[in-house]
Amino acid sequence: MKTLLETKNNLSKGTRKTVIGLLNPLLADLSDLYSQTKQAHWNVRGPYFIALHKLFDELAESVEEHIDPLAERIVTLGGVAQGTVRQAAANSSLREFPTDKAEGLAYVTALAERYAKCGAAVRKGIDKSADAGDADTADLLTGVSRDLDESLWFLEAHTR
Question: Residue 136 falls within a domain, yes or no?
Fold first, then answer.
């Protein structure tokens, strides 16, 4: 990040730069996770269609609820949220969603991998933001982590 925008927020510039630097990649991951979950929702097929179609839509809504607060936290700290679709695609750490198989349980497995990866990244973000002295961001990310873990549980329940 080049420069911070002026703010009277009393977190140090170093803390704010650190936290903005960890939030923008998480914003990219969550935006990508949302779109991949919607991709599964739109295209799922198979004997579990209606249950998975509804589940994927609920999971996407849960992810979407966290995107705006993350972006706003970045801006609150004096940063610029990197939130366009192109920015998310360029900066996401998630693998591309498989579009060659629309079978329900294959989509469940693919999403479970991505929710687990995002959950792990968010937990690292909790620790890093707390270590940097930003308890508010750690708290924000804790809510994201809880929801991702619950979503992962819903997905994994279909594979056991």
Answer: yes
Dihedral sign of CA atoms 9, 80, 58, 114 in order: negative
CA separation for the pair 111, 36 (Å, rounded): 8
Can you read off the two tokens belonging to residue 51? 């249950």
**Per-residue model confidence as pLDDT tens digits over 30-49:** 999 999 999 999 999 998 99
DSSP, residue by residue, 99-134: -S--BHHHHHHHHHHHHHHHHHHHHHHHHHHHHTT-
Helix or strand or coil: residue 6? coil
C-alpha–C-alpha distance, residues 124 and 128, integer Å:
6
For residue range 110-126, what is the model confidence (pLDDT) as tens digits? Answer: 999 999 999 999 999 99
Is residue 1 in some structural domain?
no
Residue labelled with tokens 């060659």: 100
Provide the domain limits for residue 59. 13-156
Q: Which residues contact 36 (CB under 8 A, 6 or more apart)?
A: 94, 97, 110, 111, 114
* Nearest Cα to Cα of residue 39 among 23, 18, 11, 60: 60
